[in-house]
Design goal:
nine-stranded antiparallel β-sheet, 22% strand, alpha+beta, 36% helix, flat, 348 residues
Length: 348
């Protein structure tokens, strides 16, 4: 299939400031950090932001796939609705699940699961007739991310037991890092017992937190997305992902340290060629007029401008959009502009 979007990417360079939060915890409950350019930065792992982005997609009309170890249980329930006995359903479903995963999370769609159950029905729910190669062929044939499973197209799928079912991720997420040096702080707290007569706290504890301006980098490979979706519903996919990126926030400690801050600034590029992430290797310092946001915006813009000049024709810029400086340019305007790039290319 000819791919008119080959090697074309939408790159999101986002700055987002959060006050007292612990958006992503390590194994001892402290906010994650990383050493960048010799200074300690706040960090939110790519996984911690990818899941809320994925879950937010369904708020914008996208039917999600299922990521689970419990494939057998899911398929067995469908087999029961098709007339299998409890024993037949469980045996058939376990055979199907074993063909796809060995006790690991598997990314599959509802369409695939229904096709597996219907195949088992055709075999009389006789698990001895259900072969791995048949399940693999069926999965490849029925997978349709334009119908359900756009999240598989965006985030990818690896099936160790059947490489032909692998899906290359169209979206790449970097770990979000603070643009400036950060030191975690400790909150000491107490809790009172409503039924306690004695004075004093019934419980004491501590929580670590920080505050930071984060740089987020997400690259959407339109060529890969076009290939996986077979050219279907590409503008709608771009719209849904952009909206999800805009609203999704990691879920850690949202009830006690609500992190509900929106995008402050974003530079969105449509480019061909290699991906370009801003490293913020040199930590920004506090501006006289306020916090870290304004110097972070300046550092981001200067870095991209410099790299564009140095890369010359290899920079491959098709379009550039700036969110956060002009109040007349909303996220809806950004989405409309990005959708046009997909629509024009697909229709060529």
């Amino acid at each position: 299939m000819n791919n008119p979007l080959k090697n074309t990417r939408i790159e999101f360079h986002i700055l987002q400031s959060f006050p007292v939060t612990c958006l992503n915890r390590d194994d001892v409950g402290a906010p994650k950090t990383a050493i960048v350019g010799g200074s300690t930065r706040a960090r939110v792992s790519s996984q911690a932001w990818k899941r809320p982005v994925r879950m937010a997609l369904q708020d914008f009309g996208i039917k999600l796939a299922i990521r689970s170890k419990h494939i057998a249980d899911y398929v067995a329930k469908i087999c029961l609705t098709l007339g299998a006995s409890e024993e037949q359903a469980q045996s058939s479903a376990e055979t199907i699940a074993a063909a796809l995963s060995k006790d690991t999370l598997h990314f599959f769609t509802e369409t695939e699961a229904k096709a597996f159950a219907e195949f088992a029905q055709e075999q009389g729910f006789d698990s001895s007739k259900i072969k791995d190669k048949d399940i693999h062929k069926l999965a490849k044939k029925t997978f349709n991310p334009a119908l359900d499973g756009l999240d598989i197209a965006l985030f990818g799928r690896m099936v160790a037991q059947a490489a032909e079912l692998n899906i290359e991720a169209a979206a790449s997420f970097a770990h979000a890092i603070s643009t400036h040096k950060v030191s975690n702080e400790v909150e000491f707290f107490t809790a009172l017992d409503d039924l306690q007569d004695d004075p004093g706290a019934a419980h004491m504890g501590s929580l670590e937190f920080n505050s930071a301006t984060y740089y987020r980098y997400i690259s959407l490979d339109l060529g890969q997305l076009y290939q996986t979706l077979a050219g279907q519903n590409l503008p709608e996919a771009v719209e849904a992902l952009t909206k999800a990126l805009f609203v999704a926030v990691p879920a850690a400690r949202q009830t006690t340290q609500s992190g509900a801050s929106p995008w402050e600034f974003a530079k969105v590029l449509v480019r061909t060629g290699h991906r370009l992430q801003v490293p913020f290797e040199t930590a920004v310092t506090k501006a006289k007029e306020g916090g870290f946001l304004q110097p972070s915006i300046l550092a981001l813009q200067n870095y991209l401008t410099t790299k564009e000049k140095l890369a010359g024709s290899l920079f491959g810029k098709i379009a550039e959009y700036t969110f956060g400086e002009d109040e007349s340019f909303s996220v809806d305007d950004l989405i409309a502009a990005l959708k046009q790039h997909a629509e024009v290319k697909v229709n060529e």
